[in-house]
Design a protein that fits this description.
The protein is α+β, with helices and mostly antiparallel strands. Among the domains are: 225 residues, FAD/NAD(P)-binding domain (3-Layer(bba) Sandwich); 87 residues, Glutaredoxin. It has 15 helices and 27 strands. Strands 1, 2, 8, 9, 10, 11, 19 and 20 form an eight-stranded mixed β-sheet that branches. The longest helix has 27 residues.
Amino acid sequence: MAASFAYPQFGYKPPRVPADGTERCRVAIVGGGPVGLSAALDLAAHGIGCVLLDEEDSVSVGSRAICYAKRTLEIWDRLGVGQRMLDKGVTWQIGKVFHGPHQRYSFDLLPESGHQFPAFINLQQYYAELYLVEAAREQPLIDLRWKHRVSDAVPGNDPGNGGVRLSVETPDGGYTLVADYVLAADGARSTMRRKLGLDFRGQVFEDRFLIADVHMKANFPSERWFWFDPPFHAGGSALLHKQPDDVWRIDLQLGWQADPEAERQPEKVIPRLKAMLGDDVQFDLDWVSVYTFQCRRLDRFRHGRVIFIGDAAHQVSPFGARGANSGVQDADNLVWKLAHVLNGEAPDILLDTYDSERVAAADENILNSTRSTDFIVPKSATAKALRDAVLDLAADHAFARRLVNSGRLSLPTAYCDTPLSTPDRDAFAGGPAPGAPALDAPLNGQEWLLHRCAGGGFTLLVFGAENPALPDELRSKLTVVNLPAEGVAAQRYAARPGTAYLLRPDQHIAARWRQPTTDGISKAYRKALALAA
């Protein structure tokens, strides 16, 4: 247990089930971790009610996911919790890479100024979940149900057959919940995945790593330190990260032959940590776990009216902070589409683009995670010799630093091949292309660009020009944001007078023009909702 964190008990409430034992809802979310809670808050922001089911009644034990990326913080800011995460988290952007006892180089993940959020914060997952739960409790459209365990699921994929039937067990007995759509956010050991007879494909790497959360007073800076072949730990790698409340995350490579249960015991963990920190450093163990690298995913994330998000859909190794960040971005991609479908503003086929866009994102994350693993854990003596040579060269040569991979850190995916984007017809030398996430920028020293685009709908950015004429069907559906054709925002968007960008509700670029036309905006909007022929 964390030394300075009191684990809350959210409390069980019995459901109000009709006499026939069957309850109905528009959306059910299975799983109350960061991904499921983010999806619930986003649905509420779009005016869609949901029932969130979780078999526990508290937050996760141990720090678990700790590195939250800039894009995830921007999403959480739109949902009302970003600043709270930032205020509590440990901000960092500098990483250092060591080989043996020697530092080889350092890197800066956000070298330019003019961003509301840093490249990363470190924040224990239990804090992230607590803040999301507290925000969800304030939303009357979110029905949080703790100690409600889904024991079975029968998918109904046709509009006329009553939706997905969930069997739910509670301390007071069972009931049936029928949902128009179910979001499966129940993690790596997903019950929903198992009940639908689905399995991952991919790779499990033959190595084991120790995670230790250590409570201690230390003078280490708020940076990411990664060692290859550290002098204090034979035959592996090590990672050090600072978290709030004087808690430090330490990862140590153990090897495939290590006994996971034995390695969790204090008599095994403490000598390893003393070898790293020194005998004179006083510390307490908060939480210990042993894990293996896994890079796997479902073939498809959408299965009719059941849609998988987060670790229930895909798994990657922890190095690179791609797990929770990609899961929150799954929810960000899915919810606006589901809201438009439920409100009758878009066809059901729009939900298929969640599958295609986020499968591509998962493949990108798996590729980067696999490459990280192969570099951290060489598979042969030759591969290790090559890796060590790259590390030695990195001390003096910039080209070699690009080859070092201690866990390439999470970046948002650009949906390059999505059918929802309108391809460029105008020349742009820079700026975010269709499919890419929008870039934040300061406005007038008092406001941020993405704040102006956080209403949950489509946004049209117009630089240095009068608002273009909009057809009647779009006047109530588009928020128009006028920006000057000079300054930081204009530079980041490669804008000149008349330039316009159409942003989707998840703040990815749907289209851009040098001089937009009414017809062009209308067609791009319809295409982004899968309404185009």
